[in-house]
Amino acid sequence: MTMSENQRNLEAGLLLNKNRNDINECRITVAVLFSTFVAVCGSFCFGCAAGYSSMAQTGIINDLGLSVAQYSMFGSSMTFGGMFGAIFSGKVADLIGRKGTMWFGQVFCIAGWLTIAFAQNTIWLDAGRFSTGFAVGLFSYVLMQSCGCSLFYVIGNFIHWRNLALIGLIPCILQVVTLFFIPESPRLLGKWGREKECRASLQLLRGDDADVSEEANTIKETMALFDQGPKSKIMDLFQRRYAPSLVIGVGLMLLQQLSGSSGIMFYVGSVFDKGGFPKSIGSMILAVIMIPKSILGVILVEKMGRRPLLLASTTGMCLFSLFLAFSFSFRETMALFDQGPKSKIMDLFQRRYAPSLVIGVGLMLLQQLSGSSGIMFYVGSVFDKGGFPKSIGSMILAVIMIPKSILGVILVEKMGRRPLLLASTTGMCLFSLFLAFSFSFRSYGMLDELTPIFTCIGVVGFLSSFAIGMGGLPWIIMSEIFPMNVKVSAGTLVTLANWSFSWIVAFAYNFMIEWNASGTFLIFFGICAAGIAFIYAMVPETKGRTLEDIQASLTDFVQ
């Protein structure tokens, strides 16, 4: 009998035994559920490791002074270790069993997390990342991977990268401990010829009242077929009969990785930073949808089938990659600037640009000197000063952060730029005065029990008022009041003014709060009040007007 005939007989025998055994294997018991939970803890570790590089990027680069190349080496070391883990996973499992493999993997995983947590240079960082990669290369399940990734996307916003690495030890230790309470794989025990232990393992998994004799005999027959059949080698895959399967399998894996999925997952924080979207908010959104999207995939694969779902998934990835490409591309806009005359910063100081310059710089000064940066950067200290729990206050702000920004987008189209700016600045003015009186009463020992509530109301009200108008509208108006020929120079000057005064406020804010909290907010109240007068007297309505109309109105103002 030829080798190919032996292989066909082996495959036919395995399919027959699989069909005979399907009914018994469908029985779900507590032991099966617990064993599954313990097994997929390893994949949870993978998710934690995948999410770690995104959330720890800023902290590691700042603390250890890593370059982009060095951090990229750190991030990719896990996949490099995963390659080696995948190569040895089958052999290791055959030698020491499934439980032994998981214990073996967790030794590397625990060592890797500890090495990362206490690393002082890139060598130790890379070694630790490689070690965790080697461990997770031995096991992988999508849902629990998503759970781990989701967890790290959330807590990574609040925890230092060294402590985050130590938290990664928790699922590793959990699996090491719980492995003592689950049985070894019955098939592996059957393969090793340990029939008595194989039956005991099956009995535990199927339940005390189940008859496991038929399943145990099936496993024994299957193992006998393996022993009788020819031993497969890696080169056997390159036979013509396996070519379609090999092309499909390898092709799908190449598509999965070359599509950029690993890059985005490992460094999603840098993508948000590059696009100007708050990394903390973006990672929170991903954390919220991570598990539901995996569950949705499990449901859809049964409803739609593998091929339609793969096509739909890849089409979505294709379209959103294109969307991101266009989002990051400003070539067309820059080409328009290049066609016109080149402006210099001194060109802005001509008389005809004076109103635009005063409005643009004035709005940026008002935006920063109102205290917005100080409150936003150090909101925790404001809550502490007012006696309101910082954790609860930050949670309240986190909940309203997105809705208030969306409200601003809606209102700007309903009300227009100028009315919304006036409303926003008026709100900031009133809530600054409210905070000033709140802290003033506290300093005199009055209304101590109400001051924490007043502080929370004042901070939430101030930041909400800021977000719906003053937070974004100065940038919109700045882009609408300058002619094209000086827009680049104007953007540079106005942005410089914004960041300069942002630094002044951010630097001075803590000193001012320590000096006199009530006086600090009275100063911000005065600036906001002056801002109301400035906007009313100087800032034109730009909604629905052409650049020519706006320039004409500004020219009339000069004359």
TrEMBL record:
Q: Where in the cell is it found?
A: Membrane
| Segments forming domain Major facilitator superfamily (MFS) profile | 35-543
Could you name the domain of life of the organism this protein comes from?
A: Eukaryota
Bilayer topology: Multi-pass membrane protein
Gene3D superfamilies in UniProt: MFS general substrate transporter like domains (1.20.1250.20)
Q: Which Pfam families match?
A: Sugar_tr
Q: Membrane-spanning residues where?
A: 28-52, 64-88, 100-120, 132-156, 163-182, 246-269, 281-301, 307-331, 352-379, 391-412, 419-440, 452-476, 488-509, 521-539
* This protein's UniProt keywords: Membrane, Sugar transport, Transmembrane, Transmembrane helix, Transport
- Where would one find coiled-coil regions in this protein? none
Family, according to the entry, reads as follows: Belongs to the major facilitator superfamily. Sugar transporter (TC 2.A.1.1) family.
The entry's protein name is: Major facilitator superfamily (MFS) profile domain-containing protein
In its UniProt entry, the species of origin is given as: Brassica cretica (Mustard)
